[in-house]
Design a protein that fits this description.
This protein is an alpha/beta fold. It is about 35% helix and about 20% strand. Strands 3-2-1-4-5-6-9-7-8 form a nine-stranded mixed beta sheet, with helices on both faces. α1 runs antiparallel to α9, α3 packs across α4 and α8 runs antiparallel to α9. The protein is globular, with a radius of gyration of 17 Å. The chain starts with a strand and ends with a helix. The model has no long low-confidence stretch (mean pLDDT about 95). It binds alpha-D-ribofuranose (RIB) and calcium ion (CA). Calcium ion binds next to α1.
């Protein structure tokens, strides 16, 4: 089976960390060309450090990690405490075994996508600042991606405000640029990810896997799982590994960037209403199948 070349843009973040572990545990299906870190859940210094430690935990410090943007395009950074002050629930993760590959993740995105048009899947797990800055460098850069699969937005209520989901709230201008880019987009929003909630039973299922990576996941989830959270980011990777677990519909998605009360809201209109579509919006997932996949892959890691 041909391996899918991917780049993962992330803001670890506990659910980002689980998504990275799921991807790192799947080398037969996914060829991870590189990872780019972005400011979001916590500052860039912490997200890049956490990504380095997850790579080390999975014994994959060979995967190049690039630091991206330290702040949203136009507004100040809004972080969150739901992942703990360090961004990974205070879990005992190893110190990085490898340095950053570069401090210009945006250039890495531009260069990689331009060099292999139509081949690379870009997985976005945080605010869309890095891909949006890549667009400002070359307007059609995301059109060179095979597809852009993102965790973000919601066709229902938000999780930062009533209307906005965190990734699109943190950088609404970046999100709007990406949805206007003409790229092949797959939006995995809260309306879907809330179908895979983090419960004590699910944490116990993960812990029972028994590997160091699974036990680290348990530590992270015991902090992160307390709030209005779910297995948001790992759904992006699971979609690449087993798309049959998911279903959705094509729609036109626009991002509110003017109305202060609705800033960052993803306004989703079915193709029948909008007359056109710019994204595949996923809206159903087999939660049991998702957790079975996650646990089986965590069992493959150190
Ligand atoms: O709203 C959930 C999203 O925001 C997830 O990607 C989480 O990690 C945060 O980045
Ligand atoms: Ca994230």
């Amino acid at each position: 089976m041909a391996r899918t070349p991917i780049i993962i843009d992330c803001d670890p973040g506990v659910d980002d960390a689980l998504a990275l572990l799921l991807a790192l545990a799947s080398p037969d299906e996914l060829d991870i060309l590189g990872i780019t870190a972005v400011a979001g859940n916590v500052t860039l210094a912490k997200t890049q450090y956490n990504a380095q430690r997850i790579l080390t935990l999975a014994a994959r410090a060979d995967v190049p990690l690039h630091a991206g943007s330290a702040s949203p395009m136009l507004i100040d950074l809004h972080t969150t405490e739901v992942h703990g002050g360090d961004g990974v629930g205070g879990a005992a993760l190893p110190e990085p075994a490898a340095p950053l590959a570069s401090v210009n993740g945006v250039a890495f995105l531009n260069d990689s996508l331009s060099a292999r048009p139509g081949e690379i899947t870009l997985c976005c797990l945080g605010p869309l600042t890095n891909p949006a800055l890549a667009i400002t460098n070359r307007k059609n850069v995301l059109g060179d991606a095979r597809q852009v699969v993102m965790m973000g937005g919601s066709s229902e209520r938000g999780n930062v405000t009533e209307h906005a989901e965190f990734n699109f709230f943190v950088d609404p201008h970046a999100a709007r640029l990406v949805f206007l880019s003409g790229a092949e987009l797959v939006m995995i929003g809260l309306n879907l990810t809330r179908q895979v909630p983090i419960t004590d039973a699910r944490i116990a299922q993960i812990a029972a896997v028994g590997t160091k990576s699974a036990l680290a996941a348990q530590q992270m989830l015991e902090v992160y799982g307390r709030g209005d959270t779910a297995m948001h980011d790992p759904c992006v990777i699971a979609y690449l590994l087993q798309p049959e677990l998911f279903s959705g519909h094509r729609a036109w998605v626009d991002i509110e960037v003017n109305n202060a009360e609705h800033i960052g809201q993803s306004i989703v209109k079915d193709i029948s209403e909008a007359g056109a579509a710019n994204a595949l919006v996923l809206d159903k997932v087999d939660a049991d199948g998702f957790f079975e996949l996650l646990c089986e892959r965590l069992g493959r890691l150190p």
